[in-house]
Specification:
The protein has helices at residues 35-38, 58-66, 73-100, 102-119, 134-151, 153-164, 176-208, 221-238, 241-250, 256-261, 263-277, 283-311, 318-341; strands at 346-347, 354-355. 63% of the residues lie in helices and 1% in strands. α5 (134-151) packs parallel to α8 (221-238) and α11 (263-277) packs across α12. By secondary structure, it is mainly alpha-helical. It has a domain at 328-356. The model is unreliable at 19-50 and 52-65 (pLDDT under 50). The chain contains 13 helices and 2 strands; from the N terminus they run αααααααααααααββ. The chain starts with 34 loop residues before the first helix and ends with a strand.
Amino acid sequence: MDKTNGGEPPAGDFRPPEYPDDPFGTRQPDAVFPPAYATAGTGGSGGSLPPPSSSGDDNDDDDAGEGMLRMSFMDHLEELRSRLIKALIGFGVAFFLCLLFSQQLWEIVQAPATDALTKVGVPGGKLTIIDPMEGFSIIWLWTPLVATFFVAAPWIVYQAWAFIAPGLYKRERKWAVPFITCTAGLFIVGGLFAYFIAFRYGLAFLLGIGGFAGVVPMVSIDRYFSLFTNVILGVALVFEMPVLIFFLTLIRVASPSFLLQHSRYAILAIVIIAAVITPTPDVFNLMLFAVPMTLLFFLGIFASYLLVLKRENRRFPWGVFFIWLAVVVAIVGSFVALAVLKYGYHFVRHWPFLGK
């Protein structure tokens, strides 16, 4: 009996309060409280409860429902093992295909040396073999292996993306195709830039240094291929800078404003890196590496700026951008036409693609 209410039970359906630590709590899930209990602490009246909070948006609900996959630590290790095996299998298939074309690949690799040696007066522009095993190891093993990195780059990048994709939200997984295309594409473009422009000019400069003293260069196939690999792979990796900057912005580690404010330090680091990977000590070849790397840095900032605009639901003025781009292209085209039509220049297959 409740002595505080004259021995009568309280009006309505009443249950005694349940204590959190009471192991013998007997409140049922369908227990109903009287109006006095329902309105307690709500500041309302008439037994109405406050409306549910609606602070989240639809995108958050979609992400919560279709977002990151829940995986245990062992599941992550198993997924990593599976992706590594698939990447190695793809790499092995690409290596076997490159091995079938080893002779053709070596002719491509040797072409810059042949051109440079011919210009400095070496008959035939041929490389030399000092160790009997150099020819086999370089032509039939290391040359196909280096080519495999470029052939298998899209497959390896795809496997890396497939491993991190379960930890991303659904809207972030839409970046798969641009990520794979840009990462593998920039790696291949960097290798092509090094092969057709940077390495050729650097090698011609190095071999021509001793020409005035009557020194005839004799280049070992092993030393040449080592320099070739360092320059080609080094420049190809440097061309991944825009992807790295975009990824740091995606995970909110960096921002376009921060990168612009500290761009002078980035340019200094770029010049130091260019000095390390440049095969020659002259300023011209140093700038040949440093200028494209600096342009890639600002290209990465531009891509990260587009990402920030998308997050803030703002649009980039593409119309104005393409107008200015058309103006620049028209100016450059006018200078090229003037050089060809009036001054007798013609197009050639090497940089700067114009010669008399």
